[in-house]
Amino acid sequence: MVTMATPEAPVPLTALSRWYLYAIHGYFCEVMFTATWEFVVNCNWKFPGVTSVWALFIYGTCILIVERMYLKLRGSCPVLLRCIIYTLWTYLWEFGTGLLLRQFDACPWDYSEFRYNFMGLITAEYAVPWFCASFIVERLVIRKTLRLRFHKGPEDGWSDCRSDAGGGGGAGVGAFVEGRRRERGRGMGTNANGYLKVD
């Protein structure tokens, strides 16, 4: 005998889940940026990328707020203007978090060697990189993350059926295939580890 699990509609990721993805994205990008900078400036083939654990909180929170800006502005502002707003916000957030961390001698960056820096916490030389990063964050990170869905199904995230102790293996396989067919019909056939990307 085969019993079918009741299908449930996929649900969006929670704010905490999205914050986690944004934090990891920012952390990774900073490591890659510093590694590339070290190679370009010093031709260091070891590509040593550096960052701080503080970057997880800083990037995760910053991008989560940019996400809210995107949702508010996408219908009224063109993308270039939105990216300028994101860049200004990034400067404000970088200055604020850096100033706070500096009170505890914990600020991991110092732009004092840059010509157009302000208090060593922000620098105008990074305007173009921050603008480009803002564009990438909106178009490739935020928009894709908002489309992710969590499928509240069986633990493995794939099967849509359960077989009791008396069920036959053939029936279980047949029910599994039928469950997958129904999921594809609902546009839910591309899940991996419980996460769905929907159009």
Structural commentary:
The protein is mainly alpha-helical and 199 residues long. The protein contains five helices and seven strands. The chain has helices spanning 15-42, 54-73, 79-102, 127-147, 169-185, and strands at residues 2-4, 11-12, 117-118, 122-123, 148-150, 161-163, 195-197.
Q: How many DSSP H or I helices?
A: 5
Low-pLDDT stretches are 163-169, 186-199
Q: Over all CA atoms, what is the radius of gyration? A: 23 Å
Q: Which sequence of strands runs across the widest sheet?
A: 2-5-7
Proportion of helical residues:
55-70%
Report strand %.
Answer: 5-15%
DSSP E strands, number = 7
Query: What overall form do the CA principal axes indicate?
Result: globular
Structural class: mainly alpha
Major beta-sheet overview: 3 strands, antiparallel
Report the end-to-end length measured between terminal Cα atoms: 36 Å
Overall average residue pLDDT: 82
Order of SSEs, N→C? EEHHHEEHEEHE
